[in-house]
Specification:
The chain has 352 residues and is an alpha+beta fold. The protein has helices at residues 10-13, 24-29, 103-116, 134-138, 155-163, 200-206, 231-241, 263-275, 293-313, 338-344, and strands at residues 50-65, 83-96, 120-126, 168-178, 185-194, 210-218, 243-246, 281-286, 321-327, 346-351. Helix 7 packs across helix 8 (263-275).
């Protein structure tokens, strides 16, 4: 845990916000960590804080402010004119500090801890120097991409993630980095004290508590995940199992448009089908369980049709192929984690 490196004269004078009877469930949510969350090995948590939400990506990109915001909160042209986009392993964690602490104290603890570990400041600001729209542009309930909501979060925890920074005072921000050029680790810290808000009892539960958005981007090469089965491998699976699972066919997100990097796998499918002219197959589309059943059946069916058309365009007789929608109805792994959901998003050839 982070030590209290700054004395807080306010602690002795502070008073706890009353625990309202209808607030008990919201207080309880803020008194325990989100499921499957954990502190980073790079920087711990402020003493007495809890993790409201956390998201992790093995490889992604994050755009981080490195200058003040321009424009008022209500202005249509408000923006962050100075940012930097970095790629790598991305971990975003949303903390709530205990009552009786100031933004300055919590924020300074994080920054001083990171400096002690060799990080240097890229950009730092506080209060008005950040720009009046800085908080809104950095984290806002109405901007889903900015939120940190843990996977599987219940309604109350999701509301807590949305309510954080809804109405705050004393915002403070720092972007720090460490490491050699081209191999840097970046950490951003946004801290502000909640004051009011539009989320009813949840805003009341957050009253006077400092929220902290800790974002970490660690250098990591993008994993090569394109897997292409050869014509011989396709034939062996069809002969042994009656079906072959294909992960080398890629589609645009939420669409049935086949991406160019799928061509190598399509070529191998054509090679097998050309070499085995008596074989007829079902072309089946599969999804994970994210979204409604009807939607996923429609999407998987459209993708199966798109692949059938691509194979026909390459010379395979369309009468030998029958597209079918399976959606989430035949998973290969649990949909509870992203790793399992990735296995379930696939196409298959099934021997007729």
């Amino acid at each position: 845990m982070l030590r209290l490196t700054l004395a807080s004269a306010l602690v002795a004078l502070s008073f706890a916000v009353p625990a309202w009877a209808d607030n008990a469930e919201f207080d309880a949510t803020l008194a325990k960590d989100a499921a499957k969350s954990a502190d980073s090995s790079l920087v711990g948590r402020y003493e007495g804080a809890f993790i409201v939400g956390q998201t992790k990506k093995a490889f992604d990109e994050l755009t981080l402010p490195n200058g003040p915001a321009q424009g008022e909160e209500y202005a249509d042209d408000k923006k962050l004119p100075s940012t930097m986009t970095v790629q790598g392993r991305v971990t975003r964690t949303l903390y709530v500090a205990p009552q009786g602490r100031s933004s300055l104290e919590v924020f300074a603890n994080y920054v001083e801890d990171l400096k002690a570990k060799g990080f240097t400041i890229v950009y730092e600001c506080a209060k008005d120097a950040c720009g009046p729209s800085f908080k809104l542009l950095s984290y806002n309930w109405n901007n889903k991409a900015s939120l940190v909501v843990s996977e599987g979060a219940d309604t109350q925890r999701g509301m807590a993630s949305q309510a954080m920074f809804d109405s705050v005072i004393d915002p403070r921000y720092a972007l720090l980095k460490s490491g050699e050029p081209g191999n840097e680790t970046y950490v951003s810290v946004l801290a502000a004290q909640n004051q009011g808000g539009s989320f009813g009892d949840m805003s009341q539960a957050l009253q006077d508590r400092v929220g902290v958005l800790l974002q970490i981007v660690e250098p990591k090469a993008r994993e090569q995940k394109i897997v292409t089965l050869s014509a011989d491998e396709i034939g062996a699976d069809l002969a042994n199992a009656g079906r072959v699972v294909l992960y080398g066919i890629y589609f645009d997100f939420d669409k049935a448009l086949i991406k160019p990097e799928s061509q190598e796998q399509i070529d191998q499918m054509v090679a097998y089908l050309d070499g085995n002219p008596d074989v007829k197959v079902y072309v089946t589309g599969h999804t994970d369980n994210q979204g409604g059943l009807d939607y996923n059946l429609k999407l998987s069916g459209a993708r199966a049709i798109a692949l059938t058309k691509a194979l026909a365009k390459a010379g395979v007789d369309a009468k030998r192929m029958t597209p079918k929608a399976v959606g989430p109805l035949a998973p290969l792994a649990s949909n509870d984690e992203e790793e399992g959901r990735a296995k379930n998003r696939r196409v298959e050839l099934v021997k007729q």
